[in-house]
Amino acid sequence: MPTANVNILAVLVAALLTFVLGAFWYSPILFARQWMQAQGYTPEKIAEMKKRGVTRAYVVSALCYFVMAYVVALLASYTNSTTVVQGLWLGLLAWLGFAATIGLTGNMFSEKPIAAWVIDAGYQLAYLLIMGALLAAWR
């Protein structure tokens, strides 16, 4: 296996940006209402979930984003991606080959409307493009 050149600071920044993007993506400014409707959540259900605490979900999400950013950095290194355009292409391929397909398959076996997948897949596409561009250019 080739040696990898991973910039840990870039990985941390990419993971943090993904977390921030999620806060914006799923906020009332963008898709909170549509996402809640697609998931079948009522405002009361969301309030109940918040009462139970969401700290664990945020901690796990942050760890997952760090792992994902590290893996994208490894892929950028292994493919010798060093420009924003190469990083965008890497992010698009990662989304198309893994995130979109796994998510769509899961959606097909759930009772959720396709809108639930579209909102989540859009977020995944956005953060993989950001991760790919940042991690390729900042190697």
Written account of the structure:
This protein has one domain (8-137). 78% of the residues lie in helices and 0% in strands. It contains six helices and no strands.
Principal-axes geometry comes out as: globular
The gyration radius over C-alpha positions equals 16 Å
The topology string of helices and strands comes to HHHHHH
Query: How many domains is the backbone divided into?
Result: 1
Distance between the termini: 19 Å
Number of strands: 0
The percentage of residues in β strands lies in: under 5%
Structural class: mainly alpha
Overall mean pLDDT stands at 94
Helix content bin: over 70%
**Unreliably modeled segments:** none
How many helices? The count is 6
Q: What's the main sheet like?
A: none
Short description:
This protein is an all-alpha fold.
Describe the secondary-structure layout:
Elements: H1 8-25, H2 32-39, H3 43-52, H4 55-78, H5 84-108, H6 114-137
Helix pairs in contact: 1-4, 1-6, 2-6, 4-6, 5-6
Descriptive key words:
mainly alpha; globular
